[in-house]
């Protein structure tokens, strides 16, 4: 019974972690009414939680193998109580940066589930299972949609304090419902890293996830304030539109994993990065709100599909080192959400527009498309070579039998 609870429990854990992770960016239009933040620093403040949320993914993925998901989720939620309370009492930009840095723990818990959950299911279901766990990304939509609505009624500081109650509830749930007997893997972390860092597929997958999950995080933290300042939308309207982006990306993540269980995952990534390239070019021309929405929604679909497909590929190519590889790949995805908002802000400060930033995204997506096509045909060539060698071996055995 406990084993069957792990997928829904860990998915809910991820929802909460991501809800906490984006508190600052979701409430930034309200926070700036009370705390003076220079326009050039806004992107940095909203992106700060992504830093620790990326770096910690490697150790959390590793410790999930050592101690089990139950202990790692428990400790993570206990630690999150402190920065959440600190932010609710913030009065300066420095307070937001300090508290925001440690909010990153909420984003780092992602690598716990993708390391733990495949232990409970056969290989042919790993894509779908990791995709369903990825529905936890919906936590960013929940906060982005609901936090502004609650803040209009009770203020942003009390809204942040409400998250303390949710954290306490999930600390109790994990204590009683977490799996105390999860299978453990105790290979030293440096030994695991040495076993994978020379494999080029690790870095290819890291680049792909840097784009897919990175764009998901980047748009999540960048859209609320951008839609208000660039299109003069109401704060709640901007929050709802951002929540829609997140919901679509989250919805397509399990679909991507499910499709990757049934079709060639690399072929699916070819289509994903082709659409990415076109959508980013569309955004680069700074269209009106209608075309901008179309471009954003196309990127949401691709981000969700790509995220689901990539975490089918990781356990397929790195079965015994899945924990450390999940940590490295997901760290790179998190960092992919840190740099774009800052880069866009810097480009806008220098040029007065965001076009160059979106063109850079299109070019990186195009480069990834070329790499995926190369990997796809390399995989097909390997299959053909193995079939040829197998056929040659069979013919040799037949000739030996005839000679007898």
TrEMBL record:
SUPFAM superfamilies: MFS general substrate transporter
Membrane-protein topology: Multi-pass membrane protein
Main location: membrane
Transmembrane feature ranges: 12-31, 43-60, 67-87, 93-115, 127-150, 156-177, 202-222, 242-259, 266-285, 291-311, 323-344, 356-377
Domain Major facilitator superfamily (MFS) profile, residue spans: 5-380
UniProt keywords, alphabetically: Membrane, Nitrate assimilation, Transmembrane, Transmembrane helix, Transport
Protein name (record): NNP family nitrate/nitrite transporter-like MFS transporter
């Amino acid at each position: 019974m406990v084993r069957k609870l792990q997928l829904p429990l860990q998915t809910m854990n991820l929802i909460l972690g991501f809800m906490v992770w984006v508190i600052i960016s979701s409430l930034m239009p309200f926070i700036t009414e009370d705390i003076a933040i220079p326009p050039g620093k806004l992107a940095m403040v909203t992106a700060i939680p992504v830093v620790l949320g990326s770096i910690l993914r490697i150790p959390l993925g590793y410790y999930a193998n050592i101690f089990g998901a139950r202990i790692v989720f428990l400790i993570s939620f206990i630690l999150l109580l402190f920065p959440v309370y600190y932010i609710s009492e913030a009065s300066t930009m420095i307070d937001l940066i300090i508290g925001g840095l440690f909010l990153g723990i909420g984003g780092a818990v992602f690598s716990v589930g993708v390391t733990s959950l495949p232990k409970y299911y056969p290989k042919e279901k790993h894509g779908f299972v990791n995709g369903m766990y990825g529905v936890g990304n919906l936590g960013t939509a929940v906060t982005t949609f609901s936090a502004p609505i609650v803040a209009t009624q009770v203020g942003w500081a009390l809204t942040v304090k409400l998250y303390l109650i949710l954290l306490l509830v999930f600390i109790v749930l994990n204590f009683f419902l977490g799996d105390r007997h999860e299978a453990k893997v105790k290979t030293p972390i440096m030994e695991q890293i040495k076993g994978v860092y020379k494999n080029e597929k690790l870095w290819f997958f890291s680049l792909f996830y840097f784009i897919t999950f990175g764009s998901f995080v980047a748009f999540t933290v960048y859209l609320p304030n951008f839609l208000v300042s660039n299109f003069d939308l109401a704060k709640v309207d901007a929050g709802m539109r951002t929540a829609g982006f997140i919901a679509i990306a989250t919805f397509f993540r399990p679909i991507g994993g499910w499709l990757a269980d049934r079709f060639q995952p690399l072929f699916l990534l070819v289509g994903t990065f082709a659409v990415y390239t076109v959508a980013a070019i569309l955004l680069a021309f700074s269209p009106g709100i209608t075309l901008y929405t179309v471009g954003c929604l196309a990127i949401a679909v691709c981000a969700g599909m790509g995220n689901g497909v990539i975490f089918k590929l990781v356990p397929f190519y790195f079965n015994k080192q899945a924990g450390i590889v999940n940590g490295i790949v997901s760290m790179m995805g998190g960092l992919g959400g840190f740099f774009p908002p800052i880069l866009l802000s810097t480009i806008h400060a220098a040029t007065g527009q965001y076009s160059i930033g979106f063109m850079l995204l299109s070019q990186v997506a195009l480069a990834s498309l070329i790499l995926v096509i190369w990997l796809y045909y390399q995989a097909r060539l390997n299959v053909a070579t193995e079939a040829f060698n197998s056929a040659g071996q069979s013919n040799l055995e037949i000739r030996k039998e005839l000679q007898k």
